[in-house]
Amino acid sequence: MSKLPEYAKHIASKVDEFIYETVKGSPELLYNASLHYVKAGGKRLRPLITVLSCRVCGGNEDLAVPGAAAIEILHTFTLIHDDIIDRDELRRGVPTVHKLWGEDIAIIAGDTLHAYAYKCLLRALERGAKPESVLRAFNHLIESAIVVAEGQTLDLLLSRKETASIDEYLEMVEKKTASLMIGSALIGASLAGAPPEIENRLREAMKAAGIAFQIRDDILGLLGDEKVLGKPVLSDLREGKRTILVIYTLSVVDEMKKRKLLSVLGKRDASIDELREAAEIIKSCGAVEYADKIAEEYAKKALELINSIETRDLEARELLKELVQFMIRRRY
Amino acid sequence: MSKLPEYAKHIASKVDEFIYETVKGSPELLYNASLHYVKAGGKRLRPLITVLSCRVCGGNEDLAVPGAAAIEILHTFTLIHDDIIDRDELRRGVPTVHKLWGEDIAIIAGDTLHAYAYKCLLRALERGAKPESVLRAFNHLIESAIVVAEGQTLDLLLSRKETASIDEYLEMVEKKTASLMIGSALIGASLAGAPPEIENRLREAMKAAGIAFQIRDDILGLLGDEKVLGKPVLSDLREGKRTILVIYTLSVVDEMKKRKLLSVLGKRDASIDELREAAEIIKSCGAVEYADKIAEEYAKKALELINSIETRDLEARELLKELVQFMIRRRY
What we know:
Two copies of one chain form a homodimer. Chain A contains 16 helices and two strands. By secondary structure, the first copy, chain A, is mostly helical. Chain A has a single domain, classed as Farnesyl Diphosphate Synthase (Orthogonal Bundle), CATH 1.10.600. The two termini of chain A are about 20 Å apart.
């Protein structure tokens, strides 16, 4: 039986404890808004990548926790700002930060978490991480933050274009989604003092895993169960997102279906019937099967790369592989 | 004759060069939006504080430049997000970032600069700064970012209350404005490897100077010349800001004037006549003279503290004092 769910819970509790210990201050309202999504749940996937990468590179779990908390907090900050941009109203089963506190506070709450991500990482020094290792980890954290912002911009720009190519999609996803997964792994590796060769292999593995994860996310946005997901389905269509499903569909269907789909994409006040009709066009042309196949290919590549890393902590390597498999088979 | 204007220009050019060398990437649109205010001008006061503090603590100018660029970029990020929150349309004589690119891109552009602030500082390693010094400077930069966010929140919360006390105002200003000035000085001091005793004195000096600076800003927001300022006057009233002028006025005028002023404060669609009438109530009750006096007291305290720091670089200490004097006498 898989040890992953139990280990994930164990790490989540350590990371959460570290977050609550670090992210605190006044005014209370700002901290309530900032920690809203942390309290609401979440999978804590990225912290798990950080901890397992650190272990694979010979470091221990506790050394990785500040880095794991840092990347989770960075991720949470991007969710708060993304939700404003996407005008989403639900996340992790709770109303979004801007719905509850208004956009002004949501902007500031995101900024607050962004700064606290660096603060979490700085605290690795208290656990005996070397200054040089912490600075290398900082470089990865900063790079992730920058590249995510570039990816969010590409995402916005793509949704304003009529068509997008798979290559444009992959570039966007690599930046918007995979960069945080890459950062998660490299922060763990840096804190363990891993050599550049291992970092490069982890980078390539997490790039592939991150793309597979996003493709799965695109599919769940079409076929997922809202109650399990904790966020609305079909909102990608309303927001005009160029998901891999949309790009594939636009490239294979006839002109009439293409026009129909384009007329709904990005239509903020689209009715549920219009959204369902658009979803039907996507489902019936084989886009889901296509996307599934691509996701499997990326996941396979990630698994091979992880498998090629030599380590004394075989258990950590196995758990990291299981995690990648979960990323493309998850239902939430 | 004062050497300050010439030295300020010299440092601004070094800092700008460093910024343009560091803050670059794609998509182009994101970088255009992010660098919009940097290109539009600005006083580069905070970089000057960083460089002069570094010199006072025995470090050299070039060692301080990455830290100076970091704090300027952090400041610029807060301006982009502040302008969205305050719905301002003009800054440094140009349309605000969200007016030109929309709020979505403006949010992301601010986030991008926030991350680049840390990247700028990290590059101090290339100039021979010790890892431990860079990590101490990081701590100050992170602290500034967090405290500014707390201050922005207090600013919003105060503007939603009918009255505020001077103490509440001072707490808000210390967090919203002074914290970046404090961070500017402490980053410079850290990069120079200054002892904690000197850091504490700089912290107190910059806290006082920052409060004086903000009081001057409040006054310019009432009496300033739009063309010189590069941003609209009287918008503080429209936004309902609890400036020191408003707080003083509400505490001294009769009930009728108080009601009149409160009816305009925070009224987004207030006419220019209503704003002028409110401004007249403030001017005629002696609020400006009161605020001027308080600003002078804080500036005096800052000057005394700076003067008490022993240094071999007497020129830098004189320039830092001149800078504080400029901060409360400036017309823009």
